[in-house]
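Quick start: read one record
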Amino acid sequence: MEKKYWNPYFGGVVLGTMLFLVFAIASQGFGASGTFSRATAQLLVDSDKSWLDNAYIASYFRHGGSALNNWTVIETIGILFGGFVSALLAGRLMVRPDKSPGYPVAKRFLWAFIGGMIIEFSTRLTRGCTSGQGLDGMATFSVGTWIFMFAVFGSALIFSPLFRKQWVGSEKKEGGE
């Protein structure tokens, strides 16, 4: 049974409309990377109050209360819930890793974890994630975001061949190739 996906143009219109509504109603843009920093800050302070002496950690508590009482945390919970419901309704909800011929699943998980840690660290250095930067910055016509997005896609075109075998496998084709 073929699983249907949204038409990408329709998805783009829905995403753009949602972004407009979020800006209009909440005066916020999209972005979720701050959730993980906030959760880490909350865990650190819950385990030892002396973490509040650290200016970076304390910045998450400047309005008092919990570091988790923030727009991005609520948004991230909504993204997880919405993704689950969407996959369930589309018949694509399954617990299994994507496999690639000749490339072990454990190695894919290792590379995904390493890549995820690098991305999360870099989002803290730049104070935001690529999706938030791309969507919010392009919606507000930020010149820096346009430069950033060209750099991201240009880098992907240049470096993606290095990681191709992780996605399509490492088995050699028959017939002399």
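The mean pLDDT is 84.
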